[in-house]
TrEMBL record:
CDD domains recorded: PAS (cd00130)
Stretches assigned to the PAC domain: 54-104
Record's keyword terms, sorted: Kinase, Phosphoprotein, Transferase
Keyword Aminoacyl-tRNA synthetase tagged: no
Matching SUPFAM superfamilies: PYP-like sensor domain (PAS domain)
EC annotation from Swiss-Prot or TrEMBL: 2.7.13.3
The protein's name in its UniProt record: histidine kinase
SMART domains in the cross-refs: PAC (SM00086), PAS (SM00091)
Native organism taxonomy: Bacteria, Pseudomonadati, Spirochaetota, Spirochaetia, Leptospirales
Gene Ontology terms for molecular function: protein histidine kinase activity
Length: 250
């Protein structure tokens, strides 16, 4: 695989700070795009094994000298009798920041319960605290109530099956608890809330186990990604949020 670029979109050029003439018929290695060449090795390994790469997090060097976290997907395509790779990268800088925010909240809880409560309500993503043992909801922030279109009294003391928030993804809750049992933390899982009025809200979900008042609790953060999902559908070839390249293989 020589990784020669045959076509790129404007977003890719914006990230690299180069013109199309500068990048076409050159490889990503020549352009110095990878922060870590082991990412490229992993991509090649997955393509050779499965023929597809799905949501692999890699680091991409940009024109301003920063390293941007990219969620990278790719697959083989046939074009004019030749095998090529169609690759799409989604900048997840903002999503990573939300995950960091969850970690910061958990750390603040250890230091100051009052400060935690202030941050809890100010966070622009939905936050839910659930008792680990009985799975009941012990606290939520206003953003969760807005997204779920519920009142506080509708959710406190209830389990998530009782408020039907996961009805569109019935296995998701069990999968999260299994992962938390193993790792005590989950990050950036794509899922969906079902609001009380029937609205389906696509989310990116992270959670971790914390100690609160001597009991194990799960604090979860859900970021509404409706806008990003809509952009992905509308702008497949030239999009604000995606980096795209067609790569020639020998």
């Amino acid at each position: 695989m020589n990784g020669i670029l045959l076509e790129v979109n404007d977003r890719f050029l914006e990230y690299t700070g180069k013109s199309k003439e500068d990048v076409l018929f050159r490889s990503a290695i020549d352009l110095g795009i990878y922060d870590n060449l082991k990412d490229r090795e992993k991509i090649i390994e997955l393509l050779q094994k499965d023929g597809v790469v799905s949501n692999l997090e890699i680091g991409m060097k940009t024109a301003d000298g920063n390293i941007r976290p990219i969620l990278f997907s790719a697959r083989f395509v046939e074009s004019f009798g030749e095998k090529k790779i169609l690759a799409i990268g989604h900048d997840i800088t903002e999503i990573r920041e939300y995950a960091q925010e969850l970690e910061n909240l958990a750390n603040e809880l250890v230091r100051s319960k009052d400060l935690f409560q202030k941050l809890f309500q100010l966070t622009p993503s939905a936050l839910v605290v659930t008792d680990w043992e009985n799975r009941t909801i012990t606290d939520v922030n206003e953003r969760f109530l807005e997204m779920a279109k519920m009142n506080r009294e509708d959710v406190i003391g209830k389990t998530t099956p009782e408020i039907h928030i996961w009805d569109k993804v019935p296995n998701f809750r069990m999968e999260v608890y299994e992962l938390l049992s193993q790792k005590k933390e989950v990050k950036n899982l794509e899922s969906a809330y079902l609001a009380s009025d029937g609205t389906v809200v696509p989310i990116l979900y992270s959670a971790r186990i914390i100690e609160l008042d001597g009991r194990k609790q799960v604090i979860s953060l859900a970021t509404d990604i409706t806008e990003k999902k809509d952009q992905k559908k509308k702008e497949k070839n030239s999009t604000k949020n995606f980096v795209l390249a067609k790569i020639f293989l020998k």
